[in-house]
Design goal:
The chain is α+β, with helices and mostly antiparallel strands. It has helices at residues 12-44, 87-92, 95-106, 133-151, 174-184, 203-207, and strands at residues 3-4, 7-8, 53-59, 78-84, 108-116, 119-126, 191-192, 198-199, 216-218, 230-234, 242-250, 256-261, 266-269, 282-286.
Amino acid sequence: MPIINGKYYMNPRHGEMLERARQDTQDTEAKRGGILGTLADILDGRIGSSGKHAIWPTSGNDDSGPGSARDNPYTTPHKPEVVPISESNAQAASPQNQRQQAHAQHDITNGHWVTIDHRPVFIEESSDGHSQPTVQRNKQKRKEIADIAREYNHSTAWAFDKKKGDFPAGSNKCNKFVYDVAKEAGAKATVIGKDGNARPPLAGEWADPHTRIANWRVLQPGETPQPGDVAAWPFHYSDATGHSGIVTSVDRNGHVTAIAAHQDVAGPDDSFNPSRAHPKVTYRRFTGE
């Protein structure tokens, strides 16, 4: 009687088939057990994320713990090996290198970095035309600001001799115009007054780069104004702190045209270009969505 794998079989061919099938089943169970063992180690805390070590499963003689040979006879014994992260590995994982890799992968040419959950995140758009949803929404919002300002061209609602909201008749309303247009576009701009209440920024506050206006950043030297930005210059009038308006266009030479509230009507204004009369012009850009 033939002996196959220590077992007696009347039919040798049948015995070989049975033993081959049994071996295949054992191999499959061994692979499955190895995967389950690794998952069990993770859940059991044997493989963790301390931030100082990388843990890799390797072969070994450990016969204890979930998923080990003691628990699963089909599993190849293994144990985690704690490998300290080398200086070169740490450098490769640094935020600076992550930023460089992101630039290389996405061909990013315009934007800025922020940190979210201890991870560097690049916000802006790439040169290939693909942009972050946040950037697109912001650009759309700034476009709406300029579009709304244009719609009020020739409006007398902010005239000096008319009441507009909390602004009485007989008051200048250029900053009220800026406030109302931005608010209508969903880009409301306020400062906290001495009484602790929020109010529209004065023209002089728009013009002062040291005045903080939430979600409105001051453009830095070298940045070109764009439609939807707020432009302002300071001047010590007896009844005003300066003048402000909404940028609606910038030509190829950098000449800025805005819509602003004047004495009788809202309309075009080209005074927001640095000149001898107004050498200091400040531009601000909405940063929200």
